[in-house]
TrEMBL record, chains A, B:
Pfam families: HMGL-like (PF00682). The lineage of its organism: Bacteria, Bacillati, Actinomycetota, Actinomycetes, Streptosporangiales. Its EC number is 4.1.3.4. One of its GO terms (biological process) is L-leucine catabolic process. One of its GO terms (molecular function) is hydroxymethylglutaryl-CoA lyase activity. InterPro entries: Aldolase_TIM, HMGL, PYR_CT. Keywords: Lyase, Metal-binding. This is Hydroxymethylglutaryl-CoA lyase. The keyword Magnesium does not apply. Belongs to the HMG-CoA lyase family. It comes from Nocardiopsis mwathae. It is an enzyme of class 4 (lyase).
Length: 299, 299
């Protein structure tokens, strides 16, 4: 049963930018974040505390967090993959940290330099330290719908990562279609299976529109009872290990679908569509989002 | 309840081409149709019998029908808007005719030069003559989800057009989101309402992906019991009266979603994706379809 309200987690400043050729300045990142929050977004993956030598697009996380306008009361999320990242996140004053744990070893090795079991062990340590610091932790299960190196991801592996994440105190678990191969029936099935082991953790879903299934997947998630969805303004985003995996679902297009379906998000469609177009100019490419081009309806 | 099998009506040769700047030659149209049929499509909107002075892209319908390979047993559909068109369709030897009847007067006047009531009256005459000739007739209710000139389309108007279409013997009624503004809840609602007056006529749905809701709408239609969907190879298509309304849902992307959801279509994904790319070269523009770019999964 679909909820009347869906919470959008804006991931444009992190997943949306991390694979782009053009690196935004700290001032541009701050403008992106502040404008998304002004458009009504109440949770935003603002920064990543990975090694900036490995992902130069994500440099300047501390400066970004110091510069954003915290007045609107939104929750700022930082991506963290290890203890060093957590320390930086705590020092920078984010409101939440998100840890990405792939469900497939092939992806985990290449993206995080370790096996899934090793990443789960690292996560346990991060979760303990975060709990001591009073910092909420969410876990994103990457490659939950398929892996660019291993092909199909067995649902049992996703369930196992989710179960371990919940056991170590994750307040929220996201199922991420990192390379955009999932279909709606897979979504319903995985949401049901993971819901059985989530142990009270909230479920979130994260879709890419690589093969035009992203919005149908979002709908399937909502129809399966998920109330939190990741999306990226303009629909930018990608994955360095899946070169054609461009495009998170776009916040403005998602919000269009949800609002016209009678669901609330608390965000303003027009401001989001303008922000997507603005970001396209900054990145010097046409946004995958269609709303900025086609316009809302009724006009 | 979703069916195990969904029938694809390939509309690329008609809706996909009718608004493109580049006009395909008769030989190119024949190749497009023959390749779609070779890829497993069993119904195809191959030609339009409108006045070629008004829609030059649709010229050569008779030559196209004379040139296609009828050996595979597919059903060839011709679009017809008046008696003259029906006479041409009968002479050209199509297997079915499709009549488009808008649900909004604003669109009907500009597209067809008459009111909806006048078009319904014309349709009655076409349907009688077609019945005498033993020619099956389907009706596409255009602007069923919204009109570029009038805004919202009241569901009651769609139901009324569908009721009249069924009463005059349409074997199939399509709900068409001509300008790509619909959302899944609207689909479920309209399918239910029209199903109540369809009087045994089969329901078909026709979606454009103008605002990235097209595939979610297709899913909603299938989940509501619809078993026939229009789509266009490469995702080309548009509407001259809605300049930004580019893009039917792409056959290859739709088939990817359906096949990976365990539904059969009888078509071959790889051949369709190649055909979408081929058409992009012919039209000198990148296909809105994403599958040709991203590749199937598993690879």
């Amino acid at each position: 049963m679909a909820a009347d309200r869906v919470e959008i987690v804006e991931v444009g400043p992190r997943d949306g930018l991390q694979n782009e050729d053009r690196v935004l300045s700290v001032a541009e990142k701050i403008e992106l974040i502040d404008r998304a929050v002004a458009a009504g977004v109440r949770r935003i993956e603002a920064v990543s505390f990975v090694n900036p030598k490995r992902v130069p697009q994500m440099a300047g996380a501390e400066e970004v967090m110091a510069g954003v306008d915290r007045g609107a009361g939104a929750s700022y999320i930082g991506l963290v993959l290890n203890h060093r990242g957590l320390d930086r996140a705590l020092a920078a004053g984010v409101d939440e940290v998100n840890v990405a744990i792939p469900a497939s070893d092939g992806f985990c090795r290449r993206n995080q330099g370790c096996t899934v079991q090793e990443m789960l062990a690292a996560y346990d340590g991060i979760a303990r330290a975060a709990a001591e610091a009073g910092m909420p932790v969410s876990v994103t299960v990457s490659t939950a719908f398929g892996c660019p190196f291993e092909g199909e991801t067995a649902p049992e592996r996703v369930v196992e990562v989710a179960r371990r994440a919940a056991a170590s105190g994750a307040v929220e678990i996201a199922l991420a279609d990192t390379i955009g191969v999932g279909v709606p029936r897979q979504v319903s099935d995985l949401v049901r299976r993971v819901g059985e082991v989530a142990d009270g953790a909230r479920l979130r879903c994260h879709f890419h529109n690589t093969r035009n299934t992203g919005y149908a997947n979002a709908l399937a998630a909502v129809e399966s009872g998920v109330t939190v969805l990741d999306s990226s303004v303009g629909g930018f985003g990608g994955c360095p290990f899946a070169p054609n995996a461009t495009g998170n679902i776009a916040t403005e297009d998602l919000v269009y679908m949800l609002h016209r379906s009678g669901m609330e998000t608390g965000t303003g469609l027009e401001a989001l569509a303008e922000l997507g177009e603005w970001l396209g100019v900054r990145l010097d490419k046409a946004p995958p989002a269609l709303l900025g081009r086609a316009g809302g309806f009724p006009a």
